[in-house]
């Protein structure tokens, strides 16, 4: 089982990034996928959720209207489009899969928003 995040980096405030999470080794198309983030000195924060078919999405209030979660089940990949980035969005971003009681986590990708 693998979840591999990519797409992080350094971006200026107001900029955009698109994170990807490539999955393998489990039934991705049946799994609910989530993005979380962990900022230095803070607790882990849930960011967004997408249902297995992609029809249902939910967002934390802190990112609503700026971030968009999506998935491509043919590519076993979930995405997080992040627009209008703020310094408060600086964190390591993780994807998580859930199928029944089984959860898997990726290793994370660093996003730094700074001028």
Structural class: mainly beta
Distance between the termini: 37 Å
Q: What is the typical, i.e. mean, pLDDT?
A: 97
Beta-strand residue fraction: over 45%
Rg computed from alpha carbons, rounded to a whole number of angstroms? 13 Å
Number of E-state strands: 11
Give the helix level as a range of percent. under 10%
Q: Which residues sit in consecutive blocks of at least 5 with pLDDT less than 50?
A: none
Helix tally equals 0
Element-level helix/strand string: EEEEEEEEEEE
The rough form would be described as globular
Structure, explained:
The protein has no helices and eleven strands. Helices cover 0% and strands 54% of the residues. β4 and β5 form a beta hairpin. It has strands spanning 2-6, 9-11, 17-24, 32-38, 45-50, 57-59, 67-72, 77-82, 91-99, 102-105, 109-113. It has 115 residues and is an all-beta fold. The N and C termini lie far apart (37 Å). The model has no long low-confidence stretch (mean pLDDT 97). Strands 2, 4, 5, 6, 9, 10 and 11 form a seven-stranded mixed sheet that branches. A four-stranded antiparallel sheet has the order 1-3-8-7, with no helix packed on it.
